[in-house]
Amino acid sequence: MANPNKVKGTQWESDVRNYLNETLGLVDEYGKFLDPFDACNVRRPAQEGAADVGDVHCVPFVLECKNVKSPAVPTFLRQAHVEARHAGFPYGVAVVKVARLNVRRGKVHFGIGTWTRVRQALGMSSRTFADRYAFAASLRGLDTGKWYMTTELEDFALLVRDVRALRHAR
After folding, report:
1. Phi/psi of residue 81, each to 5°?
2. Is the dihedral of CA 134, 150, 103, 70 positive or negative?
3. Which of 157, 170, 137 is nearest to 40 (CA)?
4. 104-130 in b/e burial notation, b at 16+ Cβ within 10 A?
5. Roughly how many angstroms between the first and final C-alpha of the chain, as a whole number?
6. Residues 6+ apart with CB under 8 A from 99
7. pLDDT value of position 8
8. Which residues fall within 8 angstroms of residue 90, CB to CB, at 6 or more apart?
9. Given this model, what pLDDT does residue 1 score?
10. Which phi and psi (to 5°) does residue 111 adopt?
């Protein structure tokens, strides 16, 4: 029998992928890709040897999905950043399930550096960016490596749509 924690984690990854594909309008009413060859389709990649490439690819983001009781967000973010590099993506974020809530309420955590780079790519001030995508700061302690910004998956989908629109406009 499969490890129950692995099953929960895999289900969360699939839920995140399915939610984003539906919200971004990439699938039909049956969950089938409108264009199976579209690079913007959100996918769960096959793992390739020792260089983990993340749980979900949502161009230009690698998502490290976690379904745990006690989230260790700074650790998850370090993992997401390494996996984004392995996959050749510019941004890595952690997506953590919130028990007993709909997938759209999952928490998406950005390291401060990633948050700043995405904000600058969109040409927004910190206040505008935080307000538009409903970010909240977690600034615990003096170690800035443990600071991060958090939004919900529903707001992250809007952010992805805006980042993709900017990239296609160039």
Report:
1. -65, -40
2. negative
3. 157
4. bebbbbbbbebbeebbeebebeeeebb
5. 49
6. 69
7. 87
8. 60, 84, 117
9. 53
10. -65, 155
* Confidence at residue 9, expressed as pLDDT on a 0 to 100 scale: 87
As given in the structure block, the two tokens for residue 85 are 């590099």
SS (H, E, C) the chain: CCCHHHHHHHHHHHHHHHHHHHHCCCECCCCCECCCCCCCCCECCCCCCCCCCCCEEECCEEEEEECCCCCCHHHHHHHHHHHHHHHCCCEEEEEECCCCCCHHHCEEEEEHHHHHHHHHHHCCCHHHHHHHCCCEEECCCCCHHHCEEEEEHHHHHHHHHHHHHHHHHC
Non-local (6+) Cβ contacts of 92 within 8 A are 54, 61, 62, 63, 64, 77, 79, 80, 81, 82, 83, 84, 85, 111, 114
Tokens of 159: 């952010």
Query: In this structure, what is the dihedral angle of CA atoms 41, 165, 119, 19, given to the nearest 10 degrees?
Result: -30
**Residues facing residue 33 across a β-bridge:** 27
Q: In the chain, which stretches have pLDDT less than 50?
A: none
